[in-house]
Specification:
By secondary structure, the chain is an alpha/beta fold. The protein has two domains: 3-138, Rossmann fold (3-Layer(aba) Sandwich); 166-456, paralog of FGE (formylglycine-generating enzyme) (Alpha-Beta Complex). It is 25% helix and 16% strand. It is elongated. The two termini are 27 Å apart.
Length: 459
């Protein structure tokens, strides 16, 4: 019996079961379409890939829900490569098919906007002349098939097993650390020194583990993906003239292993998108996973790494643990000194101490990993550069800016974007695990960068 894989958003399941399944069943066609086809204890990625390979045809239900689903988009990419000529798009809702960008515009779709007409089209497609023999994969130069040149990785290759486990299986050799699913208290207690009014505690449950970059994205990694340098980013900054007027430094640390800065939220998001496409095309990113900015909840969960104190290192923070304005340490920690003033006090023979970052206010960024890691192996979650998160937030403090609680929260309303972690420029209280900041999405700064997460998305 021929078999059809039905790719759809879980939000469209009722339509699939009401319209698509009965029509295909009447044609004598077997289907693979829902969570019910995944056995208990099976890995989702492995089961879906097994279902894709076992089916002769691929049918995708095209809706706005499906376009937003990473699972559906990944399944479509796999089908275009491995089931060329046997992909059937079904337009399921009243909309212009050109508005649904799923790389299927050149494939004639079944129009189900009129159910009776769509049913006839589906019966015509599968009711006669139905072949179970898939066509050969398209040939490439050199005689290798597309499947041979871009093999899909094992679907469970991204599943971590314990907190802090490292993985570096991408083209950049970027190290990432596994953050397991779990529940934690987000925000700060009322008696935490230096807390903000937008930090009221909430309980958060993250149902899926995720990978978070061990370090902030470096200038070397940025240049490989975006093909621009730090100097080019700085030159196009809308604040360059203002910085010159105020004599503010634009370049505060240069080198391949320094964190990238002068990057706004839109550009950081574009970096993640490009990296995802590169890894997908190279066959290193399994179905259902993507590179993106972490949510605010994911960021704080990873920063805390199981701790409940003000920082991952306890209830104090000095320049021994992080790169920030050590002249204003947190909660009674020992003070550091200005780096420039410190150098002025040294004799020429003492300059070997320049490599010792401890107890000083450096007034610039440092190479990533120069300070201790937290309990899950993540460096510089406190200080060095502030880090963009995926969440939106209102521009004014105190206006609907409460922390998002609940299960897998992410705020999608608000004209500003959240940043976390504090920077080389901030005092210690701004580098606490719960400290929050906000900028407009087009705002670059010499104090802000980002790190990427690799996350699994709901079907």
């Amino acid at each position: 019996m021929a078999k059809v894989f039905i790719s759809h958003s879980s939000k469209d399941r009722e339509f699939v079961e009401r319209e698509i399944i009965p029509a295909l069943t009447s044609c004598g066609v077997d289907t693979w379409y829902s969570n019910d086809d995944i056995q208990s204890a099976d890995h989702w990625d492995r089961s879906i890939l097994k279902g894709l390979k076992a089916c002769d045809w691929f049918l995708v239900v095209m809706t706005p829900n499906a376009e937003r689903s990473e699972w559906v988009r990944d399944e479509v990419l796999w089908a275009i490569e491995h089931r060329a000529g046997q992909v059937v798009p079904v337009l399921a809702v009243p909309c212009d098919p050109r508005e649904i960008n799923m790389r299927l515009r050149r494939i004639q779709h079944v129009d189900y906007r009129d159910p009776s007409h769509g049913r006839l089209q589906l019966l015509k497609c599968f009711g006669s002349g139905f072949s179970t023999e898939p066509p050969s994969p398209p040939r490439q130069q050199g005689g290798e098939s597309a499947a041979t040149m871009n093999p899909l990785p094992l679907p469970d290759s991204l599943a971590g097993t314990k907190a802090g486990q490292e993985w570096s299986g991408n083209g950049l050799k970027m190290k990432l650390c596994w953050c397991p699913p779990g529940t934690f208290t987000m925000g700060s207690p009322a008696d935490e020194p230096g807390r903000g009014n937008d930090e009221a505690q909430v309980t958060v449950t993250l149902t899926r583990g995720f990978w978070l970059a061990k370090y902030a994205v470096t200038q070397g990694e940025w240049q490989k993906v975006m093909e621009t340098t730090l100097e080019e980013q700085t030159d196009k900054s809308k604040f360059k003239e203002l910085h010159a007027l105020l004599r503010v430094q634009d370049l505060v640390g240069q080198g391949a292993n320094y964190p990238m800065y002068h990057v706004n939220h839109t550009e950081a998001t574009e970096f993640c998108r490009k990296l995802k496409e590169q890894e997908r095309q190279a066959g290193r990113l399994p179905v259902g996973w993507e590179y993106r900015l972490p949510t605010e909840a994911q960021w704080e969960y990873a920063c805390r790494a199981g701790t409940t104190t003000a920082t991952a290192f306890g209830d104090e923070l000095s320049s021994r643990e992080a790169n920030f304005d050590g002249r204003e340490p947190y909660n009674g920690a020992a003070k550091g000194r200005s780096w420039t003033r410190f150098l002025a006090t040294l004799s020429r023979s003492d300059h070997q101490w320049k490599s010792d970052h401890q107890w000083k206010y450096l007034e610039r960024t440092t190479e990533v990993g120069s300070y201790p890691a937290n309990g899950w192996g993540l460096h510089d979650m406190h200080g060095n550069v502030m880090e963009w998160c995926g969440d939106c937030i209102p521009p004014v403090y105190g206006h609907d800016d409460k922390l998002p609680g609940g299960t897998d929260p992410e705020v999608s309303e608000g004209s500003y974007r959240v940043h976390r972690g504090g920077s080389w420029f901030n005092p210690g209280q701004g580098c606490r695990s719960a400290s929050r900041g906000r900028y407009a999405p087009d705002h670059p700064s010499s104090c802000i960068g980002f790190r990427v997460a690799v996350v699994q998305w709901e079907r």
